[in-house]
Amino acid sequence: MIELRTPGELEAMRAAGAVVADMLAAVRNAAAPGVRLTELDEVARAVLADAGATSPFLGYAPQPTTPPFPGVVCLSVNDVALHGIPTSRELEDGDLLSVDAGATLDGWVGDSATTFPVGTPRPADLALVDTAERALQAGIAAAVVGNRVGDVSAAIAAVGRAGGCGINTDQGGHGVGRTMHEAPHVPNEGRPGRGVPLRAGLVIAIEPWFLAGGDDDYRVDADGWTLRSADGSRAAHVEHTVAVTADGPRILTAPR
Ligand code: MG
Ligand code: MG
Fold it and tell me: How far from the centroid of its chain's Cα atoms is residue 183's Cα?
């Protein structure tokens, strides 16, 4: 079932989204060579605690066989595209770090991700991140009343494919509300004019994740979470929670 939110509910979701933006900013500020991923998770936990929010990531297990996720952020380094676990790994100069964060505040969820280089950036990483961010903006621009989910998907993929990136639709965007993953699924590639119609009050996470090598395949580590490019190439993941409104798309996870 696809639920639509009232203007008052969107205000409540914006409050949750602002906490997520705060988490991403704090983690980005703290990320540097020599810092452990567990330390970044602690930084994000402190932001949640200060806001009186809880984590929709912590303990999350999509299937009974999946071990509960142990962190409040996914920290995905280099060839890890999604769902990286905050381990004791130390960041190194030149790493590419993706941070995916979520918060639940007053019963509403926000979900957002960003990717950035740690220390000295590699030009190829900056180009990959730029492609992902342009794809996110294209997807958001397509999130208007009268379009369909396929228009968002197609807009994302057009940018990613033009950038030579691999795109995989097994994981992608989704409805957001009182839980993190709701209908509809918002794939990162699709056909314009197809899929669920976008109506005012629909809230979706739009989240391109691209593989620099151009191959669409991935592998999941034995930990049940860590999702890596199959070809070993680096990955970027960016995400916002976006409301479709009569006045156009509203980014609920924008910085304050
Ligand atoms: Mg996310
Ligand atoms: Mg998401």
Answer: 16
Longest dimension (CA), the chain: 48
Number of domains, the chain: 1
What is the CA(110)–ligand 2 centre distance, in A? 9
* Chain segment 168-199, per-residue pLDDT in tens: 999 999 999 999 999 999 999 999 999 999 99
Q: Does some domain include residue 221?
A: yes
Indicate the Cα dihedral angle 167, 110, 249, 137, nearest 10°.
Answer: -30
Burial of 52 (0-12, 13-18, 19+ CB in 10 A): exposed
- For the segment 44-78, what is each residue's pLDDT rounded down to a tens digit? 999 999 999 999 999 999 889 899 999 999 999 99
Position 1 in a domain: no
Q: Compute, in angstroms, the gap from residue 241 CA to the centroid of ligand 1.
A: 9
Distance 241 CA to ligand 2 centre (A): 8
Domain that holds residue 117: 7-251
Looking at residue 1, its pLDDT comes to 87
User: What pTM was computed for the model?
Assistant: 0.98
